[in-house]
Amino acid sequence: MNKNTQRTIDLVNRNLAKRYRAEKRFRFYGLLSISFGLLCLVLLFTDIIGKGHSAFLQTYVALDVHFDADVLGIDNIDDETQLTVANYDGVIRKALLERFSDVRSRRDKRQLYALVSNGAGFDLQDVFRERPEQWLGKTETLWLLADDDVDTYVKSRTASGEAFTGRLSENQQRWVEALIADERIEKRFNTIFFTSGDSREPELAGIRGAIMGSLFTLMVTLVLSFPIGVAAAVYLEEYAPKNKWTDLIEVNINNLAAVPSIIFGLLGLAIFINFFEMPRSIPLVGGIVLTLMTLPTIIISSRASIKAVPPSIREAALGIGASKMQMILHHVLPLAMPGMLTGAIIGMAQALGETAPLLMIGMVAFIVDIPGGATDPATVLPVQIFLWSDSPERAFVERTSAAIMVLLAFLIVMNTLAVWLRKRLERRW
Amino acid sequence: MEATVRETVEQKPERLLDRQVIDDQEAVTAAATVGKPFVEAPKMAMRNVNVFYGEKQAIFDVSMDIGSNEVVSMIGPSGCGKSTFLRALNRMNDTIEGCWIEGSLQLEGQDIYDPKLDVVPLRARVGMVFQKPNPFPKSIYDNVAYGPRIHGLVDRRADLDEVVETSLQRAGLWNEVKDRLAQPGTGLSGGQQQRLCIARTIAVSPEVILMDEPCSALDPIATAKIEELIAELSENFTIAIVTHSMQQAARVSSRTAYFHLGKLIEVNDTEKVFTNPEHELTEAYITGRFG
Amino acid sequence: MDTSTLLAVTAALTALAYVIGRGRSLSQAANVGGIRNLNSLPFYYGMLTALWCGLPALALLILWVIFDEPIIHALVIDSLPEQMRQLSGSELGLLINSVENIAAGNSAAMGVDPHLQAASERLISLREASRQALVVVVLCGGLLFGIFGWARVRPQLKARVQVETTFKLALLLCSCIAIVTTLGIVLSVLFESLRFFQTVSFFDFIFGLDWSPQMAIRADQVGSSGAFGAVPLFVGTLLISAIAMLVAVPTGLMAAIYLSEYAGRRLRAVVKPLLEVLAGIPTVVYGFFAALTVAPMIRDNGAVLGLDVSSESALAAGLVMGVMIIPFVSSLSDDVINAVPQSLRDGSFGLGATRSETIRQVVIPAALPGIVGGVLLAVSRAIGETMIVVMAAGLAANLTANPLESVTTVTVQIVTLLVGDQEFDSPKTLSAFALGLMLFVVTLTLNYIALHVVRKYREQYE
């Protein structure tokens, strides 16, 4: 026997080195997988932030604007109509021509005018209308919004003078360089991005409209899905008899949780838009569709937190003569509420990032106005990202990335809130 | 030292049998092991072993030997640390987070907690059978062949077949399963599963087999079969068995160790332990006054 | 009064009903010797009265909103001259549309058929009447039923039982929404698909190799007769999903194994949430990343190697989709791996197996059904994923298995066909619903099998 066991241990030892190599290899694969996942995460974030951080600054050009009554076409500063229709663009053009007095040909002039954004005239109007009596006939140095091509050029300009020229002509580049040399070009915080709606002009486009759209959509979703989800969870956990019907409901909920979101879009299109003839592009319909989509998530998490309430609490309530409804409303729901809220926040985060079903119900329209309610046409943040990502202008790339940063910031806040809520309020039994 | 402690014990027998003392950790820890914990030319020699789970100490200063080809049984009330001690013998406690061990444990003179020592060959030499039968969700054949395969003990399929057959035969399972070797091991009855686990262990030809309450999940008939098997196996293997049943200890082992609150109280020939124990606590336990 | 104001007024009325119902029960309690002699607490009497008031009002409101438009349209059509009423359904629809347009003031006032002008005036007046009638009907209904409920309040009334029954019914109704949703999906998708299969044969759709859904607008237009063979879409979907699974399954599984079997507690606490961040990133972000970063990178690297890579290659979309699915696979695998009992690991360690031997030969085989279930769910996810492919995959329906070429998928086509204005009677629009039906059937089957397998697996170790 002894000889035999001796043989065993020799055999074991003979193979050990090989087995440990396999062990190391296996472990290495595991580490590799984790590193790959984390690397992707880092890559994604650095890519987005690298592309998007510059959108939070916007290039402005300083021009000596002369508020010439003739050019503006104003003879009476108390006349509101005159102030509204006045030729502010003309004033800007004149200022540009004065700065670059060598520009003669029409083509060159048009190129010169293109250095300043189309929206600059409106800004000028706002400035002017504050104190028309003080400004009229005076020359002032004003910072005006630059065109997106100029913006891109200035932002991509390196110390060595290389820059992404894009659609800027040689002349335009020369002019911009001259303005830079005069310190008449400046990058300022991009408030437009946060205060205005969509626009065809990148320098005028903002995410306010999309954020408001998302807000209204999520409000509709929350108002509908949370009560319904909690009610369904309460029924399934506290009332439902064990029968075929209950099984069917459960199977349905679990399956719906895994149905592709675009299918919900088809449902919304066929039922709400086509059959009920509800208007397209409105947060109300979007919210209803997202409600149907997030309900399973909310039901599942609510059920889990109802389940976590120990039966002894229920027995205690029933034991002193509480009715079932009283037991649920007074004891089970308050105790399960933190878990349910966590689930609801996670469901809302999911809904906030959802795009595909909203495309189906027409929330992809180009909408400049900022929606004021759940029945105004609107788009949402992820759809805005989708729309911008399709635009050819380079300036839209940085805005898309910046919009993604804003979206991710919202999501991070929501998820952190959920985690905090869970840690803070959830009771361990 | 040993004598004085025994004296104090003998002087105040009623105090020791007092419930308080039975539960008094300090008094028990202060006691010394009586009987004959040591043998000549031991297979495994443990000296001053302490086992901790995080802050909590589970084993207090245990010293004893396990001789070649003997069956040592370990008994004691639940939570007395007998399983913990057994698992320390082939470093199965390594898998439990926060568990650490002090003292010396040697297998044929080699320290098994030497940081340079490799647990893989150690466990090939010191096999283990667990409380609950835990066949892998594989066929009966693959269950038994698992050990030889991972250790590369055989090169040819025919040899492997032979190892499987002998192991199943020695575990007394061959006749029951020889026609359904390809069926899952989880489909066997509890007793058969446990014998399968024993076959799985002996297929590696270990030198020592540790059994952690191998019959606690089995019915009396299956238990009887396992006990028979242990008796047969003792011809070739050194066996340490933890058991909850004193009768079982009496039937299968040549020496018996009694643990109490993490302390080894007494080690003696099984017959002596069950007829004339040296220590009051042992006596109290085997006469059923607590446990 | 618009609908939201009406809702608010109804809510106020309901609240009032609660107060007076409760008040009546209290005054009755005084007559019979205290609240203890009432059948239920005053709260329940109040609630019951409120239910009697609010529910009928709400039901009336909903019914009215659903049915007023069709009824008004029917009335307007009735008012039209005889020859106009003889028109077919779709022509009548057009007629109503133009009446609507006139009513909304969108059409030039000149040159409008006087009949239509009259009809539009009728439409406007009917709408106004309907709005006013709605207010009256809803409020009167609420009031009448509320008074009825109030009159029923007496000490013997089993208010609590009735309120609780209503409560339970409301809960049951909410839980049935899941079934209604599924039914709604099935019906809407199936109904439109059936209309599609009336023009295009089912087998041409399933087995056809050519996909070009652009229909001729005029009969004499060339080159776009419309072909609805969906095989290229299925192949494209499978190709991209396969690439995604090739990335996600090994990586996700190994990450889960490492985290649950090797990593220390501290590493796990850091890495697990970080990986889950990947799952929380919206798909539109992945799509942007795939289209603007990964696809150009792959194309440029391919060009260095002398490969002709499409800028909308299946590889880019698949890779990014795979990254998105990694945390999905890893968290599902983590669950099933943790469900494998420790005793099996002990059994293997006890024989002297190394950690990786234990994992590969004991833990994984034991967890296999659960892992397979998880992978099936991941496949279903990949097939149904929309935004990444819409943004990073192509539109051209190439029938190819080459990951460097551009392919299109079922979801891409659904989006392309349905974004913008659609006519619900063209096969082009309807084909999107047929694709949706395929997608729904396939993912539903996968989900059903996967959930079933996972549940059976869990029961095995419970």
UniProtKB/TrEMBL annotation, chain A:
Record-linked InterPro entries: DUF3333, MetI-like, MetI-like_sf, Phosphate_PstA
Predominant location category: membrane
Subcellular location: Cell inner membrane; Cell membrane
Pfam families: BPD_transp_1, DUF3333
An MF annotation (GO) of this entry: phosphate transmembrane transporter activity
Source taxon at top rank: Bacteria
Biological processes, Gene Ontology terms: phosphate ion transmembrane transport
Domain named ABC transmembrane type-1: residues: 211-418
TM region(s), chain numbering: 28-49, 210-236, 256-276, 282-300, 332-353, 402-421
Keyword entries, A-Z: Cell membrane, Membrane, Transmembrane, Transmembrane helix, Transport
Topology in the lipid bilayer: Multi-pass membrane protein
Signal peptide start-end: none
Official protein name in the record: Phosphate transport system permease protein PstA
Record organism: Exilibacterium tricleocarpae
Automatic annotation (TrEMBL), chain C:
Gene3D superfamilies in alphabetical order: MetI-like
GO cellular component, as recorded: plasma membrane
Function, as annotated: Part of the binding-protein-dependent transport system for phosphate; probably responsible for the translocation of the substrate across the membrane.
InterPro entries found in the cross-reference section: MetI-like, MetI-like_sf, Phosphate_PstC, PstC_N
Protein biosynthesis found in the keyword field: no
Organism: Exilibacterium tricleocarpae
PANTHER family: PHOSPHATE TRANSPORT SYSTEM PERMEASE, PHOSPHATE TRANSPORT SYSTEM PERMEASE PROTEIN
The family this protein is said to belong to: Belongs to the binding-protein-dependent transport system permease family. CysTW subfamily.
Domain of life: Bacteria
GO molecular function, one term: phosphate transmembrane transporter activity
Residue ranges of domain ABC transmembrane type-1 in the record: 234-450
Membrane-crossing segments per the record: 45-67, 132-150, 170-191, 233-259, 271-294, 314-332, 362-383, 430-451
Pfam families xref list: BPD_transp_1, DUF3708
Annotated localization: Cell inner membrane; Cell membrane
Single GO BP term: phosphate ion transport
UniProt topology in membrane: Multi-pass membrane protein
Stated name of the protein: Phosphate transport system permease protein
Principal location: membrane
This protein's UniProt keywords: Cell inner membrane, Cell membrane, Membrane, Phosphate transport, Transmembrane, Transmembrane helix, Transport
